[in-house]
Design brief:
PUA domain-like; His-Me finger endonuclease fold; nine-stranded mixed beta sheet; two-stranded parallel sheet; 10 helices; HNH; endonuclease; endonuclease activity; HNH endonuclease
């Protein structure tokens, strides 16, 4: 097989072939550029796996590490790698991306390529993704919840036909975009809890900056879309989150609530209601367990739900000092 025939068989161009040769692609005759197709395919199979197979689902990587593993572009949301015969998809949830990718059930409905005007399904990487089930190209997904932190979701497949939605383009004009339903091959993929919380906080900050008119318009539009999505898909939008759960023994919690005698130790008012004949209070760790606090009586105190929310929302040192004083008095 000569050079031209190999280029056609691999679906690459001369530049990519030169890069593959530099990486070690075997040739029978380097001058005449003759190749043994079976040898080439055996080598390429191992070459494609090199770097990619070492990635761990759920782990976080830098953009440099993504580029190095896939030999793809360092920019863009859809990155075609002809050297690895792969398509790398980046789903940005930092609030800076124009596109909004949405999880429905265990599928990610990924937005296609094109920031202005109607997107085209038969062009560029939209076409690559749309036909991926009919070709030998492999598709891989990364999610970004913190800038420059790429969480590896693993390999994905196209789970259904791409469909059209109306969304605003980079200039605010409504246009047609394509949504690609993607199904994870690794069902146990979950994002780190900290990343999910960070994305939620960013979203809240953006929303709080809206004036009343924009807030009303956007909320009503989102509400209608969510209702329609529910009718169309009959599935909930959710994310699997990998969470570190600190052990809280109910014995400690129940004891500090019992000695509080139904009174919140911050506002010093009675519990708002009773459940199963007991005042409803929360057990709060003054030094958070996530920050090294102990699950101990000396570090635990009873609060009403309102004051518990206040503590975590404001983190006012005066509130903390008062609770520490209450613990000392309790002794």
């Amino acid at each position: 097989m000569n050079r031209r025939e190999l280029i056609a068989a691999l679906g690459i161009n001369g530049e990519v072939l030169e890069k593959l040769l530099a990486e070690g692609l075997p040739s029978r005759d380097e001058i005449a550029m003759n190749f043994d197709y079976d040898e080439v395919m055996k080598w390429r199979k191992e070459y494609v796996r090199l770097g990619i197979d070492q990635l761990l689902v759920g782990a976080t990587y830098s953009n440099h590490e993504v580029v190095n593993a896939f030999k793809c572009s360092p920019q863009g949301g859809m990155r075609r790698s002809r050297m690895k015969n792969a398509l790398v998809l980046i789903s940005d949830h930092t609030g800076k991306a124009l596109y909004e990718d949405r999880w429905i059930g265990d599928e990610l409905h990924y937005t296609g390529m094109g920031q202005e005007g109607d997107q085209q399904l038969d062009k560029s990487q939209n076409k690559t993704l749309a036909t991926s089930n009919e070709t030998d190209i492999r598709v891989f997904l990364f999610e970004v919840y913190k800038e420059k932190h790429y969480v590896y979701a693993g390999e994905v497949t196209l789970a259904g036909e791409p469909y059209v939605k109306l969304e605003a383009d980079a200039k605010g004009n409504m246009r047609k975009v394509y949504k690609f339903p993607l199904l994870l091959k690794d069902k146990f993929y979950a994002i780190p809890e900290d990343d999910w919380k960070r994305a939620t906080i960013v979203r809240e900050k953006v929303v709080k900056r809206l004036d009343s008119t924009n807030l009303e318009q956007k909320a009503k539009a989102l509400s209608e879309r969510n209702k329609q999505d529910q009718l169309d898909d009959k599935r909930d939008a959710y994310r699997l989150v990998r969470k570190r759960e600190f052990f809280r023994d109910p014995l400690i919690a129940e004891y500090v609530k019992d000695i509080a005698q139904g009174v919140c130790q911050l506002c010093e008012k009675n519990a708002p209601f009773e459940t199963r004949g007991k005042p409803f209070l929360h057990a709060h760790h003054i030094e958070y367990l996530a920050q090294g606090g102990a699950d101990s009586i000396d570090n635990c105190i009873a609060l009403c739900p309102n004051c518990h929310a206040r503590i975590h929302e404001l983190e006012d040192k005066r509130d903390k000092d008062k609770l520490l004083m209450k613990v000392r008095e309790r002794k």
